[in-house]
Amino acid sequence: MEEAYHIPALLTETVDGLDIRQGGRYVDCTFGGGGHSNEILRRLGGTGMLFGLDQDEDAIRNYEKTQGEKAGLTLIEGNFRYLKNFMRYENALPIDGIVADLGVSFHDFDTMERGFSFRGEGNERLDMRMNQRSSLTAADIVNERDEEELSNLFYLYGELKESRQLARRIVKWRNTNRIETVGDFIAATGIDKADKKRMSRVFQALRIEVNDEMGALKDLLEQSVECLREGGRLVILTYHSLEDRMVKNFMKSGNVEGKVEKDMFGNVISPMNMLTKKPIEASEEEVARNPRSRSAKLRIAELRSKR
Question: Is 184 helix (H, G, I), strand (E, B) or coil?
């Protein structure tokens, strides 16, 4: 059942990174199909507590329907940017380990009506909301943002050099036709659908903006310091350079900008101790089984002693 919803990348390496302790408290911030959570529960062996967060109600509903209740698991429908509030409400602080897999689930990509993919018929609504209760859709952004805002969006989040031309074409298109569907959007960009690399970057940029993914990640990283016990682990899987840079900067310097402060002896002052000098990546064998794991990068850090 799990494979129908999502196949987690680097499953063993990710859960190894949490250094599971019997009786510990852990949070899976991106519950999805429950792949990481199931392995964490297996290693806890009936001890401890696991909290699974997901803002997509489909994920929670799918797991409850296919796998039912599991001892030690508490499911919470919500965005991981509110991690501290959720854990305080559950009286679960401090936490022994936090894991987040920032990839979009197979379910979201493969459910064409969600509008995350350009591989469908084209008549799907241009949506891209991970939280279906959110009011802002991808269609709202491409129809209402001005040319400069759209250009910045595609440049920053899609790393597209032709962002200005792209924004100009979209604005010109919507002057006579409102962009409602995935097909409308593809036509408005002027990019050949067969150019999968560029099209993927365009869709990535729009999805990031719709869901404020960079802002949510920043909130999660900063709150991890307040939620983890000393020696607690932070384990993050990223899938594009923007996320990876933020995670690397935070684990190294304690801030997402990467501003390094040093003490009088030249030692970097950071609340985190990065345990992975280079990110862990999927093996050739895993990529062969799960091609979407190709871009996954795993980084692990632990909270330093506050004394």
Answer: helix
In three-state secondary structure terms, 163 is helix
Asked whether the predicted pLDDT for residue 59 surpasses 70, the reply is yes
Which domain-ending residue is among 166, 182, 211? 211
Per residue in 198-221, pLDDT tens? 999 999 999 999 999 999 999 999
Residues 6+ apart with CB under 8 A from 102: 30, 213, 217, 236, 237, 238, 239, 243
* 4-8, 18-22, 159-163, 259-263: least confidently modelled range: 4-8
Provide the token pair at 97: 């380990």
CA proximity to 272, closest of 241, 240, 228: 228
Q: What are the start-end ranges of the H helices in the chain? A: 2-5, 11-18, 35-44, 57-67, 83-89, 106-110, 138-144, 147-158, 163-174, 182-189, 196-211, 213-227, 241-253, 284-289
Entry pTM = 0.92
The last residue of a domain, from among 196, 211, 226: 211
**pLDDT on residue 266:** 81
Q: Which residues pair with 49 in a beta bridge?
A: 25
Residue 3: pLDDT band by 50, 70, 90 thresholds? very low
Question: Domain total for the chain?
Answer: 2
- Number of neighbouring beta carbons within 10 Å of residue 255: 17
Owning domain of residue 291: 2-107+213-303
Q: Which residue has the higher pLDDT, 252 or 65?
A: 252
Q: Token pair of 237, please?
A: 């899987």
- Is beta strand 49-54 parallel, antiparallel or unpaired with respect to 73-77? parallel
Question: Residue 147: which residues within 8 A CB-CB, separation 6 or more?
Answer: 164, 167, 168, 171
